[in-house]
Write a structure and sequence with these properties.
The protein is mainly α. It is built from 13 helices and 3 strands; from the N terminus they run H-H-H-H-H-H-H-E-E-E-H-H-H-H-H-H. 55% of the residues lie in helices and 4% in strands. It is elongated, with a radius of gyration of 24 Å.
């Protein structure tokens, strides 16, 4: 048996994965089940050698390390489910190793570039205070763009200085609102009260000019336009402000575990990417300022 329906429920309710993640995992598993069917292998009785043979066969036609890593993650997830529900006594995928993925350090804006980005906002425009509040929320609190566009007024506690954020996998966390972000959000709320807001979006914090929920794509466009106006040539997105938030906190002495909690990372290893950024800054400083690296 493949237990596909139970596995779907496990991913959706017990693991709280997104619809896209579930779809990707289940698509990968269809490849696994097709391979096992062709080789007359029962998934429940599969051994490590069977899984390795499947991966070898699949990887021959797709050498992309990211795709390979996701396929292995899907196999791990399925066999953890079987073990969790006692359909198997041991996990044959436990010793599967994924391909080494090249680490790419995220793009980060300097404090000076952040200032230029903010200075490029036209506060006299109808969306000026909204756009300033968006930038302050992304940079000042480290929100994901999806968290920003889904932020509800009823989850913002300005008096206490906190927001209740729903992150990946519907996991909730409390995130502080910086005084500067709160100030500009207050200006936006004053403007917002004058807008024609559609009833179904009355509790959504950030709206478009038509009174509807702002989209992720629109936030991306807003940030891109501000970068162009500010003369910033780096390839950035709204997520760049989140990276900048974490990097600047670390550079100014914040504890890595506090940053982990603020960002909503499950694994500290995810947050540790910012220590590599900090080390890169140190390396750049040595190259730029140490006399041994200066040309005559």
């Amino acid at each position: 048996m493949n237990y596909e329906r139970e596995y779907h429920t496990y991913l959706r309710l017990e693991r709280a994965y997104s619809v896209n993640t579930i779809a990707s995992y289940e698509l990968d598993l269809q490849k696994l089940f097709s391979y096992f069917e062709a080789h007359q292998i029962d998934p429940v009785h599969a051994q490590l050698a069977d899984l390795q043979a499947f991966l070898y066969d699949t990887f021959r036609s797709n050498s992309n390390p990211r795709t390979q890593a996701r396929l292995i993650a899907s196999v791990h997830s399925y066999y953890r489910f079987l073990l969790y529900h006692h359909y198997i006594d041991a996990d044959p995928s436990e010793l599967l190793e994924g391909p080494k993925r090249e680490a790419h350090l995220p793009v980060v804006l300097s404090v000076e570039e952040i200032d230029r980005l903010i200075a490029a906002i036209d506060l006299a425009s109808n969306e000026g205070h909204r756009n300033r509040a968006i930038v302050e929320m992304l940079y000042g609190s480290g929100l994901r763009v999806s968290e920003l566009v889904n932020l509800k007024l009823s989850n913002i506690y300005r008096k206490e200085g906190y927001m209740l954020i729903e992150g990946k996998g519907s996991k909730q966390r409390l995130v502080p609102i910086s005084p500067v972000a709160d100030e500009w959000f207050g200006y936006w709320l004053t403007d917002r009260a004058q807008w024609d807001i559609k009833t179904e979006f009355a509790d959504i914090a950030f709206l478009n000019r038509y009174g509807r929920q702002l989209t992720r794509a629109m936030v991306f466009t807003i940030i891109k336009r501000l970068c162009t106006a500010a003369g910033i040539t780096k390839n950035i997105s709204p997520h760049t402000l989140r990276h900048s938030f974490a990097t600047h906190l670390l550079q100014n002495g914040a504890d890595l575990r506090i940053i982990q909690q603020l960002l909503g990372h499950e694994d500290l290893a995810t947050t540790e990417i910012y220590t590599h950024l900090d080390i890169q800054d140190l390396r750049d400083a040595i190259i730029q300022y140490h006399p041994a690296n200066k040309t005559v």
